[in-house]
Structure formats: structure tokens, C-alpha cells
Amino acid sequence: MGSSQEKKELKTGYTTGSCAAAAAKAAAMALIQGETVSQVTISLPGGGQLTLPVSGVEAACGRGRAEVVKDAGDDPDVTHGLTVVAEVTLENKGVHIAGGQGIGTVTLPGLAIPVGEAAINPVPRQMIEREVKTVLPPGQGARVIISVPGGEEVANQTMNPRLGIVGGISILGTGGIVRPMSEEAYRRSLVPQIDQALALGYRLLVLTPGRMGVRKAEELGLPRSCVAETSNFIGAMLEECAQRPVEGVLLLGHLGKLVKVAAGIFHTLGKLADGRRETLSAYAALEGASREVIERLMNINTAEEAVEILRQEGLSQVFHRLAAASSRRAADYSGRRFKVGTLMYSLKGEIVGYDEQAKQIGGELAWKASLK
């Protein structure tokens, strides 16, 4: 029993922020104390300490340098295995932090870092500054440059291109430790899209589960900057919108996802909840579908199959009913803080269902949809 239990335990890792702070401390120690260490201990933002291995530690020509290899543990993090490098030089006062190779630059407002600055988030900046100050003599300042070789290539697999962070990855982390398969961390990574849209002046937002929806939004002529991906966390993103000055949300997505919302399912991961067949069947029954049609709907393998079945039976109106139901459920879920419209499409990109609110919000965003 003991060995099988051990196999289930997932290994924690550490954030890029922790890596940067550890590398900066080791580089400062090499420069100021002439000490080449193989590991350093840093303080975590929420209390406690973390000891990380360091490598490539050296000091020459008035510059200290150290490396920490990012270990995400068992979390599926695209930055796992990258090397975070810190270079430290002395200055008169203060600790000044900049980004080097592989660190992105912020180009759009609405993020925690101002436009033009390196994408090193506030908490990692505080961690870097604190650790370097533990090594600096009183009154002495330093300049710290953080770089991540290979960061520019990996950045394309992150949210950075969507957020207007160009040229590399971000240095992130609020707790210092990566919890394996952290759903909360993933959810947090999506929220800056909302803040950025608001900072750019949008009060009407488009929420879509994934890249397919982003492409559909572009096809419809919706402004790219007001479109936010939700992944499976539609409910969580609606909650975040409700805490901000959002005036309207257009839910735009494949029918397979938004039929779930019509059923009151706001975390749309299939293994957690899936009432698509039942929901489609119930709404088809409301439109007068025969028992035979309902049985066919109850036996479909994918929601996509329902499009042809309902079309053949002259029941395509079902999807408009579902769109309206999705909007009602989403508005209720959000405490009716803003108006909600829904537009759903098939895998072929054909718009199959929408409601009046979708037409209103889309019209206000000057979309190019030609809906009846």
C-alpha cells in the first residue's frame, strides 16, 4: 500500500520568480563575498523558506552571474527545464531590476507591469530585491538583469502573445512554489485578459473557451483586444467580470461548450460534468421533437451530431433557445451585474444559435455578422 500511495504523490516545483531571486542572490554573493555556492535559501512571500540548487556561479570584471534551472515538479509547465540567469553589478543606491534575453516586454496596458517594462511581475521583483539586499553592504545599490535563454521560443506556448508581452516569457509567481496541476494558477493566468481589455477602454467583452473561438471572433470582425479566452473556466471568468466595471459579455463558443452553460454547468471540463445529450433532448422536446428524435439525441457521441439531426427535423430553432438559456444562466451566475448574450457555432464554423442580446452586444462592438 505504501509504495502505491507514494506513486500518487505529485512533486511540487518552484516558480520562475523563485528561480530569479535565488540566481540573483547567488550572483550577488559571488560578486560581493567572493563565495561560489551550489545552493541558496530564499524567503517565500507567504512565509517560510525554499532552498534551490544554483549553477554557473562566477564573478569577474565587476559582475556576478548565476544560473538556476526551472523545476516545475509534476506541473505541466512549459518553462520547466529553462535556465534562469541573473547578472548583478554594483550601483550607488537601490536595487534596479531589468530583463535581458528571453524576458518579454509589456506593450499593452492593463497588466501589473507598466508598458515598456520587462515582464517581471511585482512579487518576483520584491523577492529579487529582498534577496539581493541581504547580501549588499548597507547603502550599497545594485543592478540585476534577469534573462532566460530560449524564453522567446517558449513564450509562444504561453498567454504572453495574447497579452501583448513580446520577446519572451514572464517571470511569475505569487507564492514561490508551484503546486502540481494547479487549477487555481491556470485560472489566475487567464484573468489579466479582462484587465487588459478594460484598460484599453472596453466595457463589453467577448468570452470564448479557446483558440477556435478567438478565430471566430476575428472572422466576425470583433475587436481582438476585447476577446478573452476562458478555457474550461467560464464560471470563474464570469465571476471576475462581475468584480469589475464590465457592462456586457458575449459568450462565443462551440455548441458543445455552451450547451453545458445552458444547463448551468460553468466548469466545462467533460470529466467533471456533461449534460449535453440531456440538455439538447430537453430543448428539442420543448420544440416538439418526436420520441424517436429525442432517442437519437440521447445516443449521439458528440454534440456536433445534433446539428444535422435537428436540421433534418426542422428543429434548428432549438439552438436559439439554448443560446438564450445560456445567457440567462450566465447572467444569473454573475449576479446580473451585466448583460449577457450567447452565440454558438459548429465545428465547420457555421453559426447555429444566438439570442437577441448577442446581436445587441455584437452590434455595439461593430461586428460584421449577418444574422436574421
TrEMBL record:
GO biological process, one term: anaerobic cobalamin biosynthetic process
InterPro entries reported in the protein's UniProt record: CbiD, CbiD_sf
EC number(s) on file: 2.1.1.195
Keywords: Cobalamin biosynthesis, Methyltransferase, S-adenosyl-L-methionine, Transferase
Pathway where it operates: Cofactor biosynthesis; adenosylcobalamin biosynthesis; cob(II)yrinate a,c-diamide from sirohydrochlorin (anaerobic route): step 6/10
An annotated Gene Ontology molecular function: cobalt-precorrin-5B C1-methyltransferase activity
Catalytic activity entry: Co-precorrin-5B + S-adenosyl-L-methionine = Co-precorrin-6A + S-adenosyl-L-homocysteine
Pfam annotation, one family: CbiD
HAMAP family: CbiD (MF_00787)
Family note: Belongs to the CbiD family.
Name recorded for this polypeptide: Cobalt-precorrin-5B C(1)-methyltransferase
Origin species: Desulforamulus ruminis (strain ATCC 23193 / DSM 2154 / NCIMB 8452 / DL)
